[in-house]
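Retro notes (design track)

What went well: tokenization of the new backbones is finally stable.
What didn't: we kept losing track of which sequence belonged to which structure.
Fix going forward: every design gets posted as structure first, then sequence, in one message. First example under the new rule, 324 residues:
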């Protein structure tokens, strides 16, 4: 009569050992729950004048988060717009060509130069025969000849200036004016974009994870002002041991076990790295301590409302051919 209970206990122990052996055979990896992170950097080094959200708050896309001081950036934007107007007027002047008054002035300068040239030429003509007869010094004759030549050069210069005005603006000058206007407009658009970025808004719906700087701080350019966690459900970031790498593929079904939750969550592998890395301390189990591992991400099915940072254990389905 006493042998039967002993036999039952032995059978129960064998069943438990068998189940434990089966559980150990299931490919699994350790890691943590994560959300996609979106970082909003500081566009300029300006003082924070308003913080409209708090850490942990859930926000919708387009919600204003942080406002930076806009005095200096606003002035730069206004200066850029003024430069656009200046370049626009310069281009209009180039396209319109020279004014009639400028052409008349150039024609008058030409007439004056021609009159001076005639006078200089006449004086040289009168002085030349006297020089041959040695009635005047040879130096005076040379000076008169030089003055007549200079007067003719001034006539040619005045004629060229008049021709330039009468022919109008060159096409190359107009093209340069157009390029300068485009550059000014691009700079103005960049300044306006920077001005709009002083009001930081949520690019996607999500939860505010951290606000590193406080009201009144002046963060350097590129410093993270707000860090958001986005996505409706988290994903498990796990480290797949090297012996299991060949049996894990993108799209493969997986079960995610979260500490403190009895029910497993369904998911699928959305990414696995090809380059191995050293296993982090929290994923060291047994022989895995001496092995390399591969970073993988398992996307949980909709409805898994869980916080980030929880430790998880992931069991993979039979093989990479099993898709969701």
């Amino acid at each position: 009569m006493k042998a039967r209970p002993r036999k039952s206990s032995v059978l129960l122990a064998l069943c438990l050992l068998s189940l434990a052996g089966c559980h150990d055979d299931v490919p699994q990896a350790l890691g943590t729950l994560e959300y996609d992170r979106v970082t909003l950097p500081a566009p300029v080094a300006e003082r924070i004048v308003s913080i409209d959200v708090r850490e942990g708050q859930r926000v919708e896309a387009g919600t204003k988060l942080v406002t930076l001081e806009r005095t200096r950036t606003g002035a730069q934007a206004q200066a850029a717009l003024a430069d656009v107007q200046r370049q626009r007027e310069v281009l209009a002047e180039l396209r319109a060509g020279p004014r009639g008054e400028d052409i008349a002035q150039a024609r008058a300068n030409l007439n004056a130069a021609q009159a001076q040239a005639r006078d200089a030429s006449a004086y040289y003509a009168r002085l030349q025969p006297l020089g041959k007869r040695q009635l005047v010094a040879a130096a005076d004759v040379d000076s008169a000849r030089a003055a007549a030549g200079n007067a003719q050069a001034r006539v040619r210069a005045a004629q060229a200036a008049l021709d330039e005005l009468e022919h109008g603006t060159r096409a190359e000058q107009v093209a340069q004016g157009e390029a300068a206007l485009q550059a000014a407009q691009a700079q103005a658009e960049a300044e306006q974009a920077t001005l709009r970025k002083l009001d930081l808004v949520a690019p996607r719906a999500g939860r505010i994870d951290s606000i590193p700087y406080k009201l009144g701080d002046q963060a350097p350019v590129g410093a993270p002002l707000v860090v958001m966690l986005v996505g409706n459900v988290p994903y498990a970031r796990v480290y797949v041991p090297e012996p299991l790498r060949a049996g894990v593929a993108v799209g493969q079904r997986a079960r995610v076990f979260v500490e403190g939750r009895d029910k497993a969550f369904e998911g699928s592998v959305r990414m696995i790295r090809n380059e191995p890395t050293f296993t982090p301390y929290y994923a060291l189990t047994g022989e895995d301590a001496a092995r390399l591992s591969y970073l993988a991400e398992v996307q949980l099915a909709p409805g898994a409302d869980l916080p980030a940072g929880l430790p998880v254990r992931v069991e993979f389905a039979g093989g990479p051919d099993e898709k969701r």
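Added context from the reviewer: The longest helix spans residues 100-132.
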